[in-house]
Amino acid sequence: MTEVKTIAIGITGGIAAYKVTELVSRLVKKGFQIEVIMTEAATKLVAPLTFSTLSGNPVRCEMFQEKVGERVEHISIAERADLLVVVPATANIIGKAANGIADDLLSTTIMAAQSPVMYFPAMNTMMWEHPVQQENVAKLKSLGFTVIDPDEGFLACGTTGKGRLGSIDMIEEKILDTVYALKKGRDLTGKTVLVTAGPTAESIDPVRFLTNRSSGKMGYALAHAARRRGATVHLVSGPVKLDAPRDLHFYPVNTALEMQDQVAKIYREADITIMAAAVADYRVAETVKQKIKKDKETLTLQLVKNPDILASLGEHKHGFLVGFAAETENLAENALAKLKKKNLDMIVANNVAAEGAGFDCDTNIVTIFTKNGSWELTKMSKETLADTIIDYIIKTEEMSE
Protein backbone atom coordinates (compact mmCIF):
# COMPACT_ATOMS: atom_id res chain seq x y z
CA MET A 1 0.00 0.00 0.00
CA THR A 2 1.15 3.53 -0.78
CA GLU A 3 2.22 5.88 2.00
CA VAL A 4 0.74 9.19 0.86
CA LYS A 5 3.09 12.05 1.69
CA THR A 6 2.94 14.61 -1.13
CA ILE A 7 -0.18 16.17 -2.63
CA ALA A 8 0.17 18.46 -5.66
CA ILE A 9 -2.51 21.16 -5.84
CA GLY A 10 -3.14 22.63 -9.30
CA ILE A 11 -4.86 26.03 -9.10
CA THR A 12 -6.45 27.54 -12.19
CA GLY A 13 -7.93 30.95 -12.96
CA GLY A 14 -11.36 30.56 -11.41
CA ILE A 15 -12.57 33.22 -8.99
CA ALA A 16 -12.84 30.49 -6.33
CA ALA A 17 -9.02 30.21 -6.28
CA TYR A 18 -8.94 32.22 -3.06
CA LYS A 19 -10.83 29.43 -1.27
CA VAL A 20 -7.94 27.03 -1.87
CA THR A 21 -5.86 28.89 0.73
CA GLU A 22 -7.96 27.24 3.45
CA LEU A 23 -7.61 23.82 1.84
CA VAL A 24 -3.82 24.07 1.64
CA SER A 25 -3.65 25.20 5.26
CA ARG A 26 -5.75 22.26 6.44
CA LEU A 27 -3.76 19.67 4.50
CA VAL A 28 -0.45 21.05 5.78
CA LYS A 29 -1.76 20.79 9.35
CA LYS A 30 -2.55 17.13 8.69
CA GLY A 31 1.09 16.53 7.86
CA PHE A 32 1.05 16.43 4.05
CA GLN A 33 3.75 17.97 1.88
CA ILE A 34 1.92 20.32 -0.48
CA GLU A 35 3.30 21.28 -3.91
CA VAL A 36 1.33 24.11 -5.51
CA ILE A 37 1.18 24.70 -9.26
CA MET A 38 -0.58 27.86 -10.44
CA THR A 39 -1.60 28.80 -13.95
CA GLU A 40 -0.82 32.33 -15.11
CA ALA A 41 -4.50 33.25 -14.75
CA ALA A 42 -4.56 31.95 -11.17
CA THR A 43 -1.69 34.26 -10.19
CA LYS A 44 -3.85 37.24 -11.20
CA LEU A 45 -6.35 36.25 -8.50
CA VAL A 46 -4.14 35.12 -5.61
CA ALA A 47 -0.46 35.97 -5.16
CA PRO A 48 1.84 32.91 -5.34
CA LEU A 49 3.51 34.18 -2.15
CA THR A 50 0.30 33.34 -0.26
CA PHE A 51 0.49 29.68 -1.22
CA SER A 52 4.25 29.41 -0.75
CA THR A 53 3.83 30.79 2.77
CA LEU A 54 1.00 28.39 3.60
CA SER A 55 2.64 25.32 2.07
CA GLY A 56 6.23 26.05 3.05
CA ASN A 57 7.28 25.22 -0.50
CA PRO A 58 7.97 27.37 -3.58
CA VAL A 59 5.01 27.76 -5.92
CA ARG A 60 5.55 26.59 -9.50
CA CYS A 61 4.04 28.80 -12.20
CA GLU A 62 6.21 28.83 -15.33
CA MET A 63 6.86 26.04 -17.76
CA PHE A 64 10.35 27.21 -18.71
CA GLN A 65 11.66 28.89 -15.58
CA GLU A 66 15.38 28.21 -15.27
CA LYS A 67 16.40 25.34 -13.02
CA VAL A 68 19.98 24.35 -12.37
CA GLY A 69 20.74 20.76 -11.45
CA GLU A 70 17.10 19.69 -11.40
CA ARG A 71 15.02 17.52 -13.65
CA VAL A 72 12.37 18.89 -16.00
CA GLU A 73 9.84 20.61 -13.71
CA HIS A 74 6.59 18.92 -14.73
CA ILE A 75 8.21 15.47 -14.69
CA SER A 76 9.76 16.12 -11.29
CA ILE A 77 6.48 17.25 -9.74
CA ALA A 78 4.57 14.37 -11.32
CA GLU A 79 7.05 11.89 -9.84
CA ARG A 80 6.97 13.42 -6.34
CA ALA A 81 3.20 13.69 -6.08
CA ASP A 82 1.24 10.81 -4.59
CA LEU A 83 -1.98 12.64 -5.51
CA LEU A 84 -2.75 15.53 -7.89
CA VAL A 85 -5.76 17.75 -7.14
CA VAL A 86 -6.98 20.41 -9.57
CA VAL A 87 -9.06 23.03 -7.75
CA PRO A 88 -10.79 25.07 -8.94
CA ALA A 89 -10.89 23.22 -12.26
CA THR A 90 -12.00 25.59 -15.01
CA ALA A 91 -13.60 24.56 -18.30
CA ASN A 92 -10.24 25.33 -19.90
CA ILE A 93 -8.15 22.87 -17.87
CA ILE A 94 -10.84 20.17 -18.09
CA GLY A 95 -10.93 20.59 -21.87
CA LYS A 96 -7.13 20.38 -22.09
CA ALA A 97 -6.92 17.29 -19.89
CA ALA A 98 -9.70 15.49 -21.73
CA ASN A 99 -8.07 16.08 -25.08
CA GLY A 100 -4.40 15.63 -24.28
CA ILE A 101 -3.37 19.26 -24.61
CA ALA A 102 -0.24 20.13 -22.62
CA ASP A 103 0.80 23.75 -23.13
CA ASP A 104 1.62 25.00 -19.63
CA LEU A 105 3.12 23.63 -16.42
CA LEU A 106 -0.14 22.36 -14.93
CA SER A 107 -1.46 20.65 -18.06
CA THR A 108 1.91 19.00 -18.73
CA THR A 109 2.10 17.81 -15.13
CA ILE A 110 -1.37 16.30 -15.51
CA MET A 111 -0.23 14.49 -18.64
CA ALA A 112 2.87 13.13 -16.86
CA ALA A 113 1.11 12.17 -13.60
CA GLN A 114 1.11 8.50 -12.62
CA SER A 115 -0.80 9.22 -9.42
CA PRO A 116 -4.59 9.62 -9.10
CA VAL A 117 -5.88 12.96 -10.38
CA MET A 118 -8.95 14.68 -8.90
CA TYR A 119 -10.85 17.62 -10.44
CA PHE A 120 -13.15 19.99 -8.54
CA PRO A 121 -14.82 22.14 -11.23
CA ALA A 122 -16.06 25.70 -10.77
CA MET A 123 -17.53 27.83 -13.55
CA ASN A 124 -20.60 29.62 -14.89
CA THR A 125 -23.71 27.43 -15.12
CA MET A 126 -23.97 27.76 -18.90
CA MET A 127 -20.33 26.70 -19.29
CA TRP A 128 -20.85 23.71 -16.98
CA GLU A 129 -23.97 22.59 -18.85
CA HIS A 130 -22.48 23.08 -22.33
CA PRO A 131 -22.51 19.77 -24.26
CA VAL A 132 -18.77 19.96 -25.00
CA GLN A 133 -18.01 20.50 -21.32
CA GLN A 134 -20.22 17.57 -20.29
CA GLU A 135 -18.55 15.40 -22.93
CA ASN A 136 -15.12 16.34 -21.58
CA VAL A 137 -16.18 15.55 -18.01
CA ALA A 138 -17.65 12.21 -19.06
CA LYS A 139 -14.44 11.39 -20.93
CA LEU A 140 -12.26 12.11 -17.89
CA LYS A 141 -14.50 9.96 -15.69
CA SER A 142 -14.44 7.12 -18.21
CA LEU A 143 -10.62 7.23 -18.17
CA GLY A 144 -10.60 6.73 -14.40
CA PHE A 145 -10.12 10.30 -13.23
CA THR A 146 -12.21 11.66 -10.35
CA VAL A 147 -14.41 14.63 -11.22
CA ILE A 148 -16.64 15.93 -8.43
CA ASP A 149 -19.60 17.87 -9.80
CA PRO A 150 -19.90 21.48 -8.58
CA ASP A 151 -22.58 22.71 -6.20
CA GLU A 152 -25.59 24.83 -6.96
CA GLY A 153 -25.70 28.35 -5.57
CA PHE A 154 -24.94 32.01 -6.14
CA LEU A 155 -22.10 32.47 -8.63
CA ALA A 156 -19.55 35.26 -9.00
CA CYS A 157 -21.12 36.28 -12.31
CA GLY A 158 -24.30 37.25 -10.41
CA THR A 159 -26.46 34.31 -11.46
CA THR A 160 -27.62 31.29 -9.48
CA GLY A 161 -27.19 27.73 -10.67
CA LYS A 162 -24.86 24.75 -10.82
CA GLY A 163 -21.19 25.64 -11.11
CA ARG A 164 -20.21 26.84 -7.64
CA LEU A 165 -17.08 25.25 -6.16
CA GLY A 166 -18.02 22.69 -3.53
CA SER A 167 -17.33 23.47 0.11
CA ILE A 168 -13.78 23.16 1.40
CA ASP A 169 -15.11 20.66 3.97
CA MET A 170 -16.37 18.45 1.14
CA ILE A 171 -13.20 18.84 -0.93
CA GLU A 172 -11.00 17.99 2.05
CA GLU A 173 -13.16 14.96 2.80
CA LYS A 174 -12.95 13.68 -0.79
CA ILE A 175 -9.17 14.12 -0.79
CA LEU A 176 -8.86 12.26 2.50
CA ASP A 177 -11.09 9.49 1.13
CA THR A 178 -8.64 9.01 -1.72
CA VAL A 179 -5.64 9.22 0.62
CA TYR A 180 -7.12 6.55 2.88
CA ALA A 181 -7.81 4.29 -0.08
CA LEU A 182 -4.20 4.66 -1.21
CA LYS A 183 -2.67 4.38 2.26
CA LYS A 184 -4.81 1.77 3.96
CA GLY A 185 -6.59 0.13 1.10
CA ARG A 186 -10.26 -0.80 1.30
CA ASP A 187 -9.83 -3.43 3.98
CA LEU A 188 -13.37 -3.03 5.33
CA THR A 189 -15.08 -3.56 1.97
CA GLY A 190 -18.12 -5.78 2.44
CA LYS A 191 -18.30 -5.03 6.19
CA THR A 192 -21.11 -3.16 7.95
CA VAL A 193 -20.00 -0.92 10.82
CA LEU A 194 -22.30 0.64 13.42
CA VAL A 195 -20.95 3.63 15.36
CA THR A 196 -22.55 5.70 18.11
CA ALA A 197 -21.28 9.19 18.88
CA GLY A 198 -21.82 12.28 20.97
CA PRO A 199 -23.75 12.86 24.18
CA THR A 200 -27.42 12.29 24.86
CA ALA A 201 -29.74 15.06 26.10
CA GLU A 202 -32.39 14.20 28.69
CA SER A 203 -35.13 16.85 28.92
CA ILE A 204 -36.04 18.43 32.25
CA ASP A 205 -38.54 20.91 30.84
CA PRO A 206 -39.01 22.51 27.39
CA VAL A 207 -35.81 24.59 27.72
CA ARG A 208 -33.50 22.59 30.01
CA PHE A 209 -31.86 19.19 29.77
CA LEU A 210 -29.21 16.94 31.32
CA THR A 211 -26.21 16.18 29.16
CA ASN A 212 -22.41 15.88 29.24
CA ARG A 213 -19.34 17.40 27.56
CA SER A 214 -18.95 14.90 24.72
CA SER A 215 -18.34 16.65 21.40
CA GLY A 216 -18.88 13.58 19.20
CA LYS A 217 -15.52 14.12 17.46
CA MET A 218 -14.16 10.66 18.30
CA GLY A 219 -17.26 8.82 17.09
CA TYR A 220 -17.48 10.88 13.91
CA ALA A 221 -13.79 10.25 13.20
CA LEU A 222 -14.38 6.50 13.59
CA ALA A 223 -17.38 6.61 11.24
CA HIS A 224 -15.41 8.54 8.61
CA ALA A 225 -12.40 6.22 8.89
CA ALA A 226 -14.55 3.11 8.52
CA ARG A 227 -16.32 4.54 5.47
CA ARG A 228 -13.04 5.53 3.84
CA ARG A 229 -11.82 1.99 4.28
CA GLY A 230 -14.78 0.59 2.37
CA ALA A 231 -17.37 -0.22 5.04
CA THR A 232 -21.08 0.45 4.92
CA VAL A 233 -21.41 2.73 7.95
CA HIS A 234 -24.37 3.50 10.19
CA LEU A 235 -23.78 6.45 12.53
CA VAL A 236 -26.21 7.02 15.41
CA SER A 237 -25.43 10.44 16.89
CA GLY A 238 -26.61 12.44 19.83
CA PRO A 239 -26.83 16.25 19.52
CA VAL A 240 -23.45 17.68 18.46
CA LYS A 241 -22.08 20.79 16.76
CA LEU A 242 -20.65 18.85 13.84
CA ASP A 243 -21.84 18.78 10.25
CA ALA A 244 -23.94 15.77 9.28
CA PRO A 245 -21.56 13.39 7.51
CA ARG A 246 -21.87 12.46 3.84
CA ASP A 247 -21.92 9.07 2.17
CA LEU A 248 -23.09 7.06 5.18
CA HIS A 249 -26.33 6.22 6.98
CA PHE A 250 -26.96 8.91 9.60
CA TYR A 251 -29.47 8.79 12.45
CA PRO A 252 -29.69 11.84 14.74
CA VAL A 253 -31.18 11.15 18.18
CA ASN A 254 -31.48 13.05 21.45
CA THR A 255 -32.15 10.75 24.39
CA ALA A 256 -30.65 7.48 25.60
CA LEU A 257 -33.93 5.69 24.90
CA GLU A 258 -33.97 7.00 21.34
CA MET A 259 -30.37 5.86 20.87
CA GLN A 260 -31.20 2.42 22.27
CA ASP A 261 -34.15 2.03 19.88
CA GLN A 262 -32.13 3.08 16.83
CA VAL A 263 -29.13 0.90 17.70
CA ALA A 264 -31.41 -2.10 18.20
CA LYS A 265 -32.73 -1.70 14.64
CA ILE A 266 -29.24 -1.88 13.13
CA TYR A 267 -27.20 -4.07 15.49
CA ARG A 268 -27.97 -7.44 13.92
CA GLU A 269 -26.76 -6.16 10.53
CA ALA A 270 -23.39 -4.95 11.87
CA ASP A 271 -20.16 -6.90 11.59
CA ILE A 272 -18.45 -4.36 13.87
CA THR A 273 -20.17 -2.16 16.46
CA ILE A 274 -18.26 0.73 18.05
CA MET A 275 -20.12 2.38 20.94
CA ALA A 276 -18.30 5.69 21.28
CA ALA A 277 -21.28 7.74 22.50
CA ALA A 278 -21.30 9.15 26.03
CA VAL A 279 -24.78 8.04 27.00
CA ALA A 280 -26.35 9.75 30.03
CA ASP A 281 -26.55 7.36 32.97
CA TYR A 282 -29.76 8.95 34.27
CA ARG A 283 -32.82 10.78 32.99
CA VAL A 284 -35.51 12.80 34.73
CA ALA A 285 -38.32 10.56 35.96
CA GLU A 286 -40.93 12.92 34.53
CA THR A 287 -40.34 15.77 32.11
CA VAL A 288 -42.20 18.93 33.07
CA LYS A 289 -44.34 20.26 30.21
CA GLN A 290 -43.95 23.93 31.14
CA LYS A 291 -40.77 25.85 31.94
CA ILE A 292 -39.84 25.51 35.60
CA LYS A 293 -39.85 28.93 37.27
CA LYS A 294 -37.02 29.88 39.60
CA ASP A 295 -39.30 30.79 42.49
CA LYS A 296 -37.78 28.27 44.92
CA GLU A 297 -34.45 28.33 46.73
CA THR A 298 -33.91 24.63 46.00
CA LEU A 299 -35.18 22.26 43.36
CA THR A 300 -35.19 18.49 43.60
CA LEU A 301 -35.12 16.37 40.45
CA GLN A 302 -36.01 12.71 40.64
CA LEU A 303 -33.72 10.74 38.33
CA VAL A 304 -34.13 7.21 37.04
CA LYS A 305 -31.43 5.05 35.54
CA ASN A 306 -31.11 4.85 31.77
CA PRO A 307 -30.61 1.47 30.13
CA ASP A 308 -27.01 0.35 29.65
CA ILE A 309 -27.09 0.04 25.87
CA LEU A 310 -23.61 -1.44 25.59
CA ALA A 311 -24.28 -4.10 28.25
CA SER A 312 -27.52 -5.12 26.56
CA LEU A 313 -25.67 -5.59 23.27
CA GLY A 314 -23.10 -7.75 25.05
CA GLU A 315 -25.89 -9.94 26.43
CA HIS A 316 -27.04 -10.67 22.88
CA LYS A 317 -23.60 -10.66 21.31
CA HIS A 318 -23.31 -10.24 17.56
CA GLY A 319 -20.19 -9.46 15.56
CA PHE A 320 -17.22 -7.56 17.03
CA LEU A 321 -18.26 -5.28 19.90
CA VAL A 322 -16.19 -2.27 21.03
CA GLY A 323 -16.90 -0.03 24.00
CA PHE A 324 -15.39 3.20 25.30
CA ALA A 325 -14.59 4.03 28.92
CA ALA A 326 -14.07 7.60 30.10
CA GLU A 327 -12.31 7.38 33.45
CA THR A 328 -10.75 9.78 35.94
CA GLU A 329 -8.97 7.16 38.10
CA ASN A 330 -7.97 3.47 38.14
CA LEU A 331 -8.17 3.39 34.34
CA ALA A 332 -6.91 -0.14 33.71
CA GLU A 333 -8.85 -1.69 36.58
CA ASN A 334 -12.14 -0.06 35.60
CA ALA A 335 -11.70 -0.71 31.88
CA LEU A 336 -10.90 -4.41 32.33
CA ALA A 337 -13.91 -4.81 34.63
CA LYS A 338 -16.18 -3.30 31.97
CA LEU A 339 -14.60 -5.43 29.24
CA LYS A 340 -15.51 -8.59 31.15
CA LYS A 341 -18.85 -7.50 32.64
CA LYS A 342 -20.26 -6.22 29.34
CA ASN A 343 -18.90 -9.11 27.24
CA LEU A 344 -16.89 -6.87 24.91
CA ASP A 345 -14.20 -7.78 22.40
CA MET A 346 -12.38 -4.49 22.96
CA ILE A 347 -12.60 -1.42 25.14
CA VAL A 348 -10.92 1.93 24.48
CA ALA A 349 -10.23 3.75 27.73
CA ASN A 350 -8.96 7.23 28.45
CA ASN A 351 -8.41 9.45 31.45
CA VAL A 352 -10.63 12.41 30.61
CA ALA A 353 -8.84 14.52 33.22
CA ALA A 354 -5.52 14.27 31.34
CA GLU A 355 -4.42 17.22 29.23
CA GLY A 356 -5.06 16.61 25.52
CA ALA A 357 -7.49 13.75 26.14
CA GLY A 358 -11.21 13.25 26.51
CA PHE A 359 -14.13 15.50 25.75
CA ASP A 360 -14.30 18.46 23.39
CA CYS A 361 -10.72 18.47 22.11
CA ASP A 362 -9.13 17.39 18.84
CA THR A 363 -6.63 14.96 20.38
CA ASN A 364 -6.92 11.93 22.62
CA ILE A 365 -4.76 9.61 24.71
CA VAL A 366 -6.11 6.09 25.11
CA THR A 367 -5.25 2.56 26.12
CA ILE A 368 -6.83 -0.26 24.14
CA PHE A 369 -7.77 -3.39 26.09
CA THR A 370 -8.77 -6.80 24.72
CA LYS A 371 -9.01 -10.22 26.34
CA ASN A 372 -5.50 -10.99 25.05
CA GLY A 373 -3.59 -7.83 25.87
CA SER A 374 -3.45 -4.04 26.05
CA TRP A 375 -1.78 -1.24 24.10
CA GLU A 376 -1.05 2.18 25.58
CA LEU A 377 -1.05 4.80 22.80
CA THR A 378 0.56 8.22 22.75
CA LYS A 379 -1.37 11.45 22.21
CA MET A 380 -2.62 11.78 18.65
CA SER A 381 -5.38 13.47 16.70
CA LYS A 382 -8.76 11.82 16.93
CA GLU A 383 -8.67 11.24 13.16
CA THR A 384 -5.38 9.34 13.43
CA LEU A 385 -6.60 7.50 16.51
CA ALA A 386 -9.75 6.40 14.69
CA ASP A 387 -7.65 4.73 12.02
CA THR A 388 -5.41 3.16 14.68
CA ILE A 389 -8.40 1.75 16.57
CA ILE A 390 -9.71 0.18 13.35
CA ASP A 391 -6.26 -1.32 12.73
CA TYR A 392 -6.45 -2.99 16.16
CA ILE A 393 -10.01 -4.19 15.54
CA ILE A 394 -8.97 -5.86 12.28
CA LYS A 395 -5.86 -7.34 13.92
CA THR A 396 -7.87 -8.68 16.90
CA GLU A 397 -10.53 -10.15 14.62
CA GLU A 398 -7.86 -11.95 12.57
CA MET A 399 -6.22 -13.36 15.71
CA SER A 400 -9.53 -14.74 16.97
CA GLU A 401 -10.41 -16.51 13.72
Tell me what you see in this structure:
The protein has 401 residues and is of the alpha/beta class. Helices cover 35% and strands 23% of the residues. The protein is built from 14 helices and 21 strands. The chain has helices at 20-29, 40-43, 48-55, 73-80, 91-98, 105-112, 125-129, 131-142, 168-183, 217-228, 256-266, 309-315, 331-341, 382-400, and strands at 6-11, 33-38, 83-89, 117-121, 146-147, 151-154, 160-164, 192-197, 202-205, 208-210, 232-237, 249-252, 272-275, 282-284, 303-305, 320-327, 346-351, 363-364, 367-370, 373-376, 380-381. The strands form six sheets. Strands 12-11-8-13-16-17-19-20 form an eight-stranded mixed beta sheet, sandwiched between helices. A five-stranded parallel beta sheet has the order 2-1-3-4-5, with helices on both faces. Strands 6-7 form a two-stranded antiparallel sheet. The longest helix has 19 residues, at 382-400. The chain is elongated, with a radius of gyration of 25 Å. The model has no long low-confidence stretch (mean pLDDT 91).
Short description:
The protein is α/β, with parallel strands linked by helices and 401 residues long.
